[in-house]
């Protein structure tokens, strides 16, 4: 048996030993918040407790608080489990050796023979979605709106239920899909993404289902589809609202039966995948307008999760900015001055986190030092607030030509223009691509995000 670290006098060794039977970090907590024992997994993830502290309290160890969580403005699962007599679950941000992490906390009350509440077993499952180890996939945030979303992700991830992520462009839907996949039992297999916007019917079908050799002109080889690649893993359909009606029925069949046919073949194939979809559109409204099949809508919308726009969670701004600066800084430590951060908080971010990234990337290029002050942020914000003339052309374009640095490449100028359009259309790639006269796929490629 793994070594049990009993902190308290040997009063309840049997209960304490039970902690080893849990396959997640677990602690034994008294009714007055004292940690009585920890298991190996807990110590691996969260470190040893300070042995000089004779009465370590959960709120001090996990949060650095000097009083219980509910008195410090957070929900306290221990208090909730005491009141309900049942297990309670919340999502908390804990201090860990890796910094702050989101932890899915489950509190199980343990009763004595007389039915009196004796202690609690607390299970702590860190969410990798919030960790710093894989920066490109890590979601940063601690606002109530963000935590609510993370709580839903933690709940639904282990099941095989279809999830529909809704939210504005750039708010983090794809990142949330990765979070769901990585916390699912399918995490060791692939998450395969199909960007549905801007695909022609033929392309959609052959991308999704694959095609056999000779299926159509130019099909010189057999190509497996994404559905096949997603077997055992997760299929992520981004911008599901853009799937043409004629193809929705094929999608419905795939979801209902798990079967499909490659283009040009009569053989029925099977794939076992978990479906996650995302949209920035109001699908309910599309159903009412007859543009989206109602039966498909109910199939994909089993567990809806709303990804909140950045302006609804200003508390997250600074944390995300810090992470982005670290990520883009390539070893150089950039930071925002207080008034620069205040300036960002005044902005509404129609393009959400993606726009924040772009603004910071511009600010880093514009700044002469690694300190990003209000002035630099103001200049970096300018291309995000285009004025358009009646014809829909960015009126700032002319003056911007004067402001373009001499060494700006054609590609750089093109990117600036596309960013203008994106900002103008509230982050909608479809509208921006239409205005630029290119496909959404080309837009993605040109911006190379
Ligand atoms: N909470 C977050 N913390 C850190 N980075 C984030 C967060 N949310 C989003 N991002 C970053 O913002 C960018 C946009 O995120 P993502 O692609 O997931 O948005 P989206 O909602 O899927 O957008 P779209 O609808 O346009 O496809 C990505 O670079 C992503 O890494």
UniProtKB/TrEMBL annotation:
GO terms for molecular function: ATP binding; sequence-specific DNA binding. It comes from the Bacteria. It holds the Pfam family AAA_lid_14. One of its GO terms (biological process) is regulation of DNA-templated transcription. InterPro entries: AAA+_ATPase (IPR003593), AAA_lid_NorR (IPR058031), Homeodomain-like_sf (IPR009057), HTH_Fis (IPR002197), P-loop_NTPase (IPR027417), PAS_4 (IPR013656), Sigma_54_int (IPR002078), Sigma_54_int_dom_ATP-bd_2 (IPR025943). Keywords: ATP-binding, DNA-binding, Nucleotide-binding, Transcription, Transcription regulation. Residues 139-365 form the Sigma-54 factor interaction domain. PANTHER family: TRANSCRIPTIONAL REGULATORY PROTEIN (PTHR32071). This is Sigma-54 dependent transcriptional regulator. It comes from Pseudohaliea rubra DSM 19751.
């Amino acid at each position: 048996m793994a070594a049990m670290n009993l902190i308290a006098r040997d009063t309840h060794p049997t209960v304490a030993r039970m902690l080893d039977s849990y396959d997640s970090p677990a602690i034994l907590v008294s009714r007055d918040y004292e940690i009585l024992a920890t298991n190996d997994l807990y110590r691996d993830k969260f470190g040893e407790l300070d042995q000089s502290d004779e009465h370590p309290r959960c709120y001090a160890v996990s949060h650095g608080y000097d009083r219980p969580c509910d008195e410090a403005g957070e929900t306290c699962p221990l208090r909730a489990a005491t009141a309900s007599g049942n297990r309670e679950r919340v999502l908390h941000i804990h201090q860990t050796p890796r910094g702050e992490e989101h932890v899915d906390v489950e509190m199980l009350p343990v009763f004595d023979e007389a039915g009196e509440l004796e202690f609690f077993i607390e299970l702590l499952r860190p969410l990798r979605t919030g960790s710093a180890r894989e920066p490109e996939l890590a979601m940063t945030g601690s606002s109530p709106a963000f935590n609510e979303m993370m709580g839903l992700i933690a709940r639904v991830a282990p099941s095989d239920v279809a999830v529909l992520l809704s939210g504005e462009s750039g708010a983090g839907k794809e990142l949330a899909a990765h979070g769901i996949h990585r916390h699912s039992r399918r995490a060791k297999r692939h998450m395969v993404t199909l960007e549905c916007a801007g695909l022609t019917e033929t392309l959609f079908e052959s991308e999704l289902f694959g095609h056999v050799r000779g299926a159509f002109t130019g099909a010189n080889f057999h190509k497996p589809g994404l559905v096949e690649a997603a077997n055992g893993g997760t299929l992520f359909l981004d911008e599901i609202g853009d799937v043409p009606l004629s193809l929705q029925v094929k999608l419905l069949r795939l979801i209902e039966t798990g079967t499909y046919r490659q283009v040009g073949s009569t053989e029925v194939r099977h794939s076992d995948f978990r479906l996650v979809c995302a949209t920035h559109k109001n699908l309910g409204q599309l159903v009412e307008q007859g543009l989206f099949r109602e039966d498909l809508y109910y199939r994909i919308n089993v567990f809806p999760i709303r990804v909140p726009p950045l302006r609804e969670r200003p508390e997250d701004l600074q944390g995300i900015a810090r992470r982005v600066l670290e990520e883009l800084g390539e070893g150089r430590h950039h930071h925002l001055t207080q008034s620069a951060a205040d300036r960002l908080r005044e902005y509404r971010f129609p393009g959400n986190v993606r726009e924040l990234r772009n603004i910071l990337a511009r600010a880093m290029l514009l700044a002469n030092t690694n300190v990003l002050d209000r002035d630099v942020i103001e200049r970096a914000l300018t291309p995000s607030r285009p004025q358009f003339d009646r014809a829909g052309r960015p009126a700032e374009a002319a003056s911007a030509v004067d402001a373009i640095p001499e060494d700006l490449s054609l590609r750089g100028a093109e990117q600036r223009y596309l960013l203008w359009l994106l900002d103008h259309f509230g982050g909608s790639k479809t509208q921006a691509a239409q205005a630029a006269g290119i496909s959404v796929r080309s837009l993605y490629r040109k911006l190379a995000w």
